[in-house]
Amino acid sequence: MKITACKTYLVEGIKYNWTLLKIETDTGLHGWGEGTNWPGSPLIEAACQHVGEVLIGQDARRIDYLWTKLYRDMHWLGQAGPLLSAISAVDIALWDLKGKRLGAPVYDLLGGAYRDKIQLYANYWFTGGGHTPDDYARQAAATVAQGFTALKLDPFAHVNYRYGEDLNADNGLSEKQKQLALDVVAAVAAVVGPEVAIAIETHAFLNAPTAVEMAQRLARLNFNCMWYEEPALPEFPAAIADIRRRIPLPVCVGERIHSRFMLRSVLESQAADIVMPDITRCGGISEMRKMAHLAEAHNVPIAPHNPNGPLSTIASAHTMATVPNFFRQEFMVNDVPWRDTCLSHALPVKNGFFTLPDRPGLGFDVDEAELQKHPGVRTVEPGRNFYV
Questions:
Q1: What is the pLDDT at residue 287?
Q2: What is the spatial distance between Cα 296 and Cα 187, in angstroms, rounded to a whole number?
């Protein structure tokens, strides 16, 4: 089953570009993967294109061997970044291929499913308003009405992620910003009630004293806090562990941790109550499953980060169906309409759950003509909140 071609597609998403990869073989079968990451999606696109060229002539059945070969051959580039996103896309596509070849869903090939529905938590549900308590509360109520029992938001007005622009250079907050964050969370908690969990996103944009202060002040609101996300950058697992010991909220990290090798120090430092690797960044299905097993060995649940394209949602669901320590999976409630129209079947999301398909492989094909109608953004128009 030789690889004969690899095609890369950069596709416009709601917030940033998706990077999708199609692997074709001499059997006529093909598989689809995703390596979405940002800012810098053209770098991911180029990495997928280059790795695709390297794969020509390789045996598509040797998934773990090809993962290891790509990682070790190109390890000089570092242990994270565009290379790992390209490996992620390849790995997902190869599992899709294997399932199609054997006539079985990917989750069956991974040992079978613990569950047939994957519980989701909602993100990007707040795009229909401004950064005010009333606007967040209104949209939170509408999201819960769709069946979601957990929501995530960044209440600290981190809308522009570019350093040195809207953010304070010292990663601090004014008292006005601090109070606004508290008011937003209080408004959301009041409208959704104690049965709905709320995850607080910081994007690692708070310095340590501010992160600790805000966690303590948020805790006094007495809301159902699912977790306090990324109170420091992943380069500092000891600092995250210190913050975790000083605050009353559970800590979640992992979206910037790009392999089991990077995750190990976080777990050994006891820096996280929950980990959240991203399947399009960490090395795909194979690596996310290994990371889940590593987390299980430390009694830590896993909740995949997933603000990406549709294949990321699907591949994450297949993987999370097969591990015992799954918690919840992220889902973009508001997205571009072609998230569904580019697929052979719409995403099976209802009442806050993703229902696993019983079709071979990932269970979805991709319409290339539809992808071509929505090419990736290369230059952002002034005023648009988009990250190339």
A1: 98
A2: 35
Alpha carbons 151 and 218: distance in angstroms, whole number: 16
305 is catalytic: yes
Question: Does the predicted TM-score (pTM) go above 0.90?
Answer: yes
C-alpha pair distances (Å), 88 with each of 128, 252, 372: 32, 22, 22
In whole angstroms, what is the distance from residue 322 CA to residue 43 CA? 32
Are 225 and 331 members of one domain?
Answer: yes
> Residue 161 burial (CB < 10 Å; 0-12/13-18/19+)?
middle
Spans of the chain below 70 pLDDT: 158-159, 164, 166
From the list 305, 318, 345, 374, the catalytic residue is 305
The closest alpha carbon to 38, from 386, 339, 379, 319, belongs to: 386
Other CB atoms within 10 Å distance of the CB of residue 159: 10
Looking up residue 248, the CATH number of its domain turns out to be 3.20.20.120
Q: Could you tell me where the DSSP H helices lie in the chain? A: 41-55, 63-73, 82-102, 106-109, 133-145, 175-192, 208-219, 237-246, 260-268, 284-297, 310-320, 338-341, 368-372
Residues 84 and 151 occupy one common structural domain: no
Tell me, what's the pLDDT at 162? 73
203 belongs to the catalytic site: yes
CA distance 179 to 197: 21
Q: What is the DSSP letter of 361?
A: B
Residue 274 in domain: yes
Euclidean distance between the first and the last CA atom of the chain, given in angstroms as a whole number? 35
Q: How far apart are CA 372 and CA 7, in angstroms?
A: 12
For residue 140, give the amino acid letter: A
DSSP codes of every residue in 65-104 = HHHHHHHHHTGGG-SSTHHHHHHHHHHHHHHHHHHHHHTS
Asked whether residue 126 is assigned to any structural domain, the reply reads yes
| The pLDDT of residue 166 | 67
Marked catalytic residue, from 50, 203, 293, 298:
203
pLDDT on residue 202: 96
